[in-house]
Amino acid sequence: MKRKKLLALTLVAAIAVGAVTGCGSSSDTGSTSTDTQTAQTETATSGDAAQTTGQADSTGYVYEGTAPITQEEGKSLKILAETSNYSNVDIASARIVTTVVEQSGVDVEWQLLDYNSYQDAATPMLTSGNVDADIVLLPDQDTNQTYIKSGLFAPLDEHFDSMPNFTAWLEANPVIKAEITAEDGHIYYVPGTNVGKDYQPCLMYNQVWLDKAGVEAPETLDEFVELLRYFKENDMNDNGDTTDEIPMSIMSAFLPYMFGPAFGLDLVSGFQADEAGNVTYAYADSVNYKNYLEFLNGLYEEGLLEVEYTSLDRDQVIARISNDLTGVAYDFSWAMSMMYSNVLPYYDGTAATAFVGAKPLSGDYEGYYVGRVELGNMFGVSSSSSDIDLACKFLDYAMSDACQELYQWGILGESYEVDDSGNKYFTEQGQDNDWLQQLGINPSFVFPAQQSVEATDILVADWHAECNAELRQYVVDPWPFIYSTTDESDVVNTYMTDIQTLVDENATAFVTGNRSLDEFDTYINELNAICLGDVLTVKQAQYDRYKAALE
What we know:
By secondary structure, the chain is an alpha/beta fold. The protein has helices at 2-16, 34-45, 95-104, 118-127, 146-149, 164-172, 174-179, 207-213, 221-233, 255-259, 288-301, 314-322, 335-340, 388-398, 401-409, 433-439, 453-459, 462-471, 486-512, 520-529, 532-550; strands at residues 76-82, 107-113, 135-137, 189-193, 201-206, 246-249, 271-273, 279-281, 326-332, 355-357, 369-370, 375-381, 416-418, 424-426, 475-476.
């Protein structure tokens, strides 16, 4: 308990540093050189990756990367993570997850928090030191190294002799290794990875409705608005009622993805750099962001963006699609054939009867889709764990090729088979998304899973895989993952939460008309008053450092 209190006080102190200073009074944020970063990366991994023999347990057994991780009886670990994003999936009981745990040779006591509120719930647990777990799924990627500097997590490179799978993976992924090497030269987290440009969030149209309207998928904002009006005013589902059509069903989190690029804004990342490398904050663009808000407000006032758009969730979208009530959606591409098309009453497995992805919308600027940073969920080993080495071994085994194959393909003979040429393919049962989710496919909620384009291509409908390949050309890289220096994290920790809160509250207010866009200049002044300029100075220094490291 004393250890937890000490960590909590340290974390609070780390967050509070700089809070008493005003805007512009922070230290130089651009002082960490590329050479220093390179040296730190080399320090974190030099010599360690070649070591594949860990500590022997009490039975004399040495873990070398394959199951089990120990032969001691009665060993257990506590893991704090999140539930599945599918409300009907118990991820802790899913076969893929229980198989990994059983093969590891240890028992796992799961502490799972709700997926939809994990960050809100887990963050205060960490900041207060109220975490009784050996392994923790981070509520964020700790870009500012807040948890690292507070001593909450053990430096994993000090246990690399017990982590042969992870060290080999780092050597095969040098860019990621550099990204996750902290300012002090240590590596603290085991990451899952995302596919960066494939199966990204995209715009989807009900192809049957498009055909009834006699149009192709819109390419411009003006064409899009005209299509929404047509969907709203006509009996698109042929049920005799022209009032039950909902033109589009878009979860609020996807509005920045969907419309931001047409206004020259990467609202997904927030920060963006122009061709000259100058960094700006998209939500403070005095011209383009105001135009974006005016556009959304127009949709809202016309009833094309529904009144309750901020509370719409995926289950509601799926229910609407299953009743043929809506014509436009926006979600991760995975949903295209696996959650949306498959519930349409007339879907026959072809693109002609499906919700089909289309190129991004353009306005004054050419549209694009924002990809993902490949770094996914991060897992750390608590520095207060009573068995740090065992926890490191468990995470290492979870990174093994054998486990990754389980995450991506499931159970041989049930979800997939292998043909005479050695090619994997999903069984008929494995192509049932609901069943596959129940099995625990891609359990990134609880393990550091690496996403696979190959497995996804085979799993989705052929037309969906072809659509993904076509849309890849429109996907651009997001703002990169860059660790902050101590001075930089002080600035970001001090100001960014208030900035984000102000942005979120005003975005909804401007769209709904609860705050007049006549007050937009006042909103910009409010951002500047809470030290946006200081944060931009930090982001510019980080981006300059990132670009230099790529040369």
